[in-house]
Design goal:
Elements lengths: L1 H14 L23 H11 L1 H22 L4 E17 L2 E21 L3 H67 L5 H36 L19 H11 L1 H22 L4 E13 L5 E12 L7 H67 L5 H36 L4 H4 L8 H8 L8 H15 L1
Antiparallel strand pairs: 1-2, 2-3, 3-4
Helix pairs in contact: 1-8, 1-9, 2-4, 3-4, 3-11, 4-5, 4-7, 4-9, 6-8, 7-8, 8-9
Length: 477
């Protein structure tokens, strides 16, 4: 899974490029309702509008309730009971029989309270708490994926916009060359072949411009899916986020901060505590049971009041091997989580290394592309000037124009690769979050809901009513 995600990141860096216009860095901006002028606004839109984040926040709240359920296990359970009983009694004698019918209506309270379970519930609660912490980190990892998808979508829109601009300018230049070729043909400086070559290049440029516009529409559709709104007017190219000084430093940051690694560490602790909880079920339990009831005869023949209590110490001696099997399964799950932790650690290190190298490569590629554009521009200007003097053919000019277009396209791609690699490196270190980027959004605080439910408030309590209001507010959002 980790290798697959690394491949997807590198594929995205190669696929989605373009001049990264807009200001992000690690600064905050004010979002605008109907447009995204820069990359910060795109990530803000993704954070606010992501249905995937909303879904997993709700799943986290459901996981919080497991802690409440574990707490409630060691609390008394009180049931109100109402019964209506119809009894028929028949006594037989040597000389006949007598029968009696009675209808009794009773009501009362039954109480059952698990006082001691050898610590199984305690470890179950601790395991549930570790699962909550693991799920929180999984939510942070998902937040990184949502924000990086916004970066990819934004950069791809910029790529296609810049490609459209390049193709449009290329078409304009080729149309000028076609007019020049026609003029030179009229005075006999070139042949019909030169005019036909220019016409062919113009037609190809028109087709390329049409394709680029179609690709831009596709990129905008992907942007709407990732961000939740249409891209607006794009601002200038932003500064790239600052990176760490070395690969070793980047890996050290990732080992401390990456949410998938932290989530797996909590998963190991949860599995360990769950295994201990299962082992504790082999011990004794103490249960208190009590009841009080009032009964009346439907015929008004009398009433009956009763009450009672019992304290039970129980030790399961044999359960067909099910308890021992559950204990062994818990140990196996713990071993599996430890193995997954090793895999996650190696995967995080691999992702950091891949992103760090990709960023270095993208920077070198951009520098080479800048030099290529400079040289191609000089060559095109010289060949075009020479063509006006008759020293170059129309084909030479067209080839030089194509080389210049290819160089500019490569530079656009290199800039995009550099931007995506920079944010992929942030993600690999666990730093691509709304909080660390300083995005101007109201951050989702998972502790607010947890603090309300961790003590398992009763349905009729004030805190339970507060929870109802919170759930209604979350539902409206």
């Amino acid at each position: 899974m980790r290798k697959k995600r690394t491949a997807q990141v590198l594929k995205a860096i190669v696929f989605a490029g373009g001049v990264l216009a807009g200001g992000v860095g690690l600064t905050t901006t004010t979002s605008k309702p109907a447009m995204a002028d820069n990359l910060s606004d795109a990530m803000i839109g993704a954070y606010k509008n992501s249905g995937l984040l909303e879904q997993n926040r709700a799943l986290l709240r459901a996981t919080d309730e497991n802690v409440a359920a574990a707490v409630a296990r060691l609390r008394p359970v009180v049931d109100w009971v109402a019964r209506a009983e119809r009894n028929y009694l028949r006594n037989g004698f040597a000389n006949g029989a007598a029968s009696k019918h009675d209808t009794t209506i009773s009501t009362g309270l039954d109480l059952s309270w698990l006082l001691f379970d050898n610590g199984a519930s305690k470890f179950s609660k601790l395991a549930a708490q570790e699962t909550v912490l693991s799920t929180r980190q999984a939510l942070v990892d998902l937040e990184q994926q949502v924000l990086f998808a916004a970066v990819q979508a934004y950069v791809n829109v910029l790529l296609q916009q810049d490609n459209v601009s390049l193709r449009r300018n290329n078409l304009r230049l080729l149309q000028e060359e076609l007019r020049a070729a026609n003029d030179r043909f009229e005075v006999g400086e070139v042949t019909r072949t030169d005019v036909a070559l220019a016409e062919s290049r113009v037609a190809a440029a028109q087709a390329s411009l049409t394709e680029s516009r179609g690709a831009l529409q596709d990129a905008q559709a992907v942007y709407v899916e990732a961000v939740g709104q249409q891209p607006g007017t794009i601002a200038g190219q932003p500064p790239l986020p600052q990176r760490v000084a070395s690969l070793a430093a980047a890996e050290a940051v990732a080992m401390r901060n990456h949410p998938s690694l932290l989530a797996q560490q909590h998963a190991v602790k949860a599995a360990d505590l769950a295994a201990q909880s299962t082992a504790r079920t082999l011990g004794p339990t103490v249960t208190l049971r009590a009841n009080i009831a009032h009964a009346e005869n439907a015929r008004g023949a009398g009433t009956r009041d009763s009450s009672g209590a019992s304290l039970t110490l129980a030790q399961r001696l044999y359960a067909g091997g099910s308890v021992a099997s559950a204990r062994r399964a818990g140990i196996a799950r713990l071993q599996a989580e430890r193995g997954a932790l090793i895999t996650t650690q190696r995967g995080v290190a691999q992702d950091v290394a891949a992103a760090y190298v990709a960023l270095d490569t993208a920077g070198a590629s951009l520098r080479s592309s800048e030099e290529r554009v400079r040289a191609a521009q000089v060559a095109f200007d010289g060949i075009r000037e020479e063509a006006t003097l008759g020293a170059r053919t129309t084909l030479d000019v067209l080839q030089a124009e194509q080389e210049l277009l290819d160089a500019k396209t490569a530079r656009v791609q290199a800039r995009a690769n550099q931007a995506l690699a920079a944010y992929a490196l942030l993600q690999s270190q666990g730093l691509l979050t709304a909080e660390r980027l300083g995005l101007a959004v109201e951050l989702y605080d998972p502790t607010l809901y947890y603090n309300l439910v961790e003590d398992a408030p009763a349905y009729v309590s004030k805190r339970s009513k507060d929870l109802d209001r919170v759930m209604r507010a979350l539902g409206k959002n």
